[in-house]
Amino acid sequence: AAKPDPLLVVDGVSRSFGGLTAVHVEHLEIQRGTITSLIGPNGAGKSTLFNVLSGFDKADSGTWTFDGRPATGRAAHRMARRGLVRTFQLTKTLSKMTVLDNMKLAATGQRGEQVLPALLPPLWRRQEKEITGRADELLERFRLAHMRDEYAGTLSGGQRKLLEMARALMVRPTMIMLDEPMAGVNPALTQSLLGHITDLRDEGMTVCFVEHDMDVVMGISDWVVCLAEGRIVAEGPPSSVAKNPAVIDAYLGK
Ligand code: ADP
Ligand code: MG
């Protein structure tokens, strides 16, 4: 393997809900340019860890750095600007916007949308054109171009998954966190989503994704981290993690 080059370094991060420790991670490193899968049974803390590291939730303790700089407790929009984004399922509100507007919103966020066009019309128009160009490029790549001006709510389940991924790429992230991108998707589309994920890695992006189906992740992961009851119980290359007794226990225990 290549020399370690961690993009995300996590130390002693914990998050509790009431009396329940959802996450307690002593140490975790995500290597730049890899596909790292986070596996584990339901309730293991995978989504909570994603939320904390991407700035959508607060840790109770611990520290982490992203791209060599402190990132502990930074808000999601700041992390996005620094190149770390996570995907979210399409909400009701977003369903009532067109596919293109979904893409544009992902680039600008909610902040400054009214302010910028009012204060700096020429700059805004140039930026708007750039953003639309980027959106169209990505819609093409994810085969959604024909749905550009339709309401996002009219997309099929699989197309929604593609849009979620495309949205996240609007900010040209260094690292993308995908929470169960394949959930509820048919096998053909699963293959296509896995292809997109591999392509992103091959282009140099760091991908971290949550998936509870071990078979799905084994083929494409460079590294696999298994969480159970909030703790890392095993990590390593997919072949070694697949036969690790702690991992087998974690799955059979549920
Ligand atoms: P996973 O994504 O691995 O299925 P989660 O991170 O969603 O697991 O949940 C980990 C644990 O934390 C679960 O026991 C879950 O019920 C609990 N949990 C997650 N979010 C909340 C919350 N907002 N309030 C209370 N408990 C939560
Ligand atoms: Mg989850």
Automatic annotation (TrEMBL):
It comes from Prauserella muralis. GO terms for molecular function: ATP binding; ATP hydrolysis activity. Keywords: ATP-binding, Nucleotide-binding, Transport. This is ABC transporter ATP-binding protein. The keyword Ribosomal protein does not apply. GO terms for cellular component: plasma membrane.
